[in-house]
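Methods — Computational structure assignment.
A single polypeptide chain was analysed. Its primary sequence is given first, followed by the predicted tertiary structure written as structure tokens.
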Amino acid sequence: MNTSTTNQLFDLSYLNQVFQGNQDMINNIIQLFLEQVPQYIGEMEKCVERQDFISLHPLAHKAKSSIAMLGLKNMEQQVITIEEDSRKHRNQIGLGRLVQELRAECNLVHEQLRCLLDTNQAA
């Protein structure tokens, strides 16, 4: 998998700044993302299946900070829209599509970040 900056979906600038380039800390944050965010999205998918749109709001809110820290701008916008629409009880038909799009992007990001971690640990 090519994770060059041209098609890399994440941006670790914020983490590099906050942790002053401490790769172990950055890797820990990436690992937390890899463990937590797919679970949150899985729970969102279950909410959509049950048409329990009100429960999407807290799940999207939980995922938002992890997504933002990794500079995932597209995912961040998707999760903000899910959070706002579910909180305001609007766009219920579109929420299912948004959660599917979030899952698809998360899968791509997950693969890229897993490759990055494998490379960092091999170095």
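Note: Confidence is low (pLDDT under 50) at residues 1-5.
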